[in-house]
Specification:
The chain is an alpha/beta fold and 194 residues long. It is built from seven helices and eight strands.
Length: 194
């Protein structure tokens, strides 16, 4: 069984991206200014609320109220919800689950240019995966700052992660249906850790 990962380009290792990333890392380590990626603030589109409602519905079923929907060419191609407790996997965030479900049956390269809708701004791990997959747009409901008031967060924005990736431009739209996403936390929907 062959595996395709988001870090590969059409099944081949992308040397140029890897070397650019390593070079940027070495440059920063030795005092050079880091290369800047491109994170563009994008306006809310007419279809955003409908897809975000799907992400929030996924979040309502998760171990923690985080859900994601991946959309390509106007169609939902994958969904995910936080399964960290269920799967005993702290990396099973909604975004990661949606990506893993997609690549289980499809080439990872088909994620290039897709849009990921998520009930909470992606953490650095999830945003890193989104970047490595080449997704073109992220739409989130609640921001890291809003989430931090309800549950622990790593205080690095999705924009900061995207700007550290000089090989990709990611459009970011935030705040879509944030009150609805935050209500999941306010209703004590958090499941206790084992």
């Amino acid at each position: 069984m062959s595996q395709t990962t988001c870090g590969r380009d059409g099944g081949r290792f992308n040397r140029r991206a890897a070397l650019a990333t390593m070079g940027a890392g070495f440059g920063v380590a030795f005092g050079a200014a880091p290369a800047q990626g491109h994170a563009k603030r994008a306006p809310v589109l007419p279809e955003d609320e409908g897809f975000m409602r799907m992400a929030i519905a996924e979040a309502a079923k998760g171990d923690f109220p985080f859900g994601a929907v991946i959309v390509r060419d106007g169609k939902v191609v994958s969904t995910g919800r936080n399964l960290g407790v269920t799967n005993n996997d702290p990396t099973a965030h909604g975004e990661m689950v949606a990506i893993r479900r997609f690549v289980a049956d499809n080439p990872a390269k088909d994620l290039k240019g897709a849009t990921l809708y998520t009930s909470g701004e992606p953490c650095p791990m999830c945003m890193g995966a989104i970047v490595w997959c080449g997704m073109g747009r992220v739409v989130y409901a609640a921001s890291v700052e809003q989430l931090e008031k309800r549950i622990g967060q790593i205080m690095i924005t999705s924009k900061a992660v995207a700007q550290a990736a000089p090989f990709l431009t990611v459009e970011i739209t935030g705040g879509v249906l944030a009150p609805e996403a935050l209500a999941l936390f306010d209703k004590n929907k958090l499941k206790p850790l084992p």
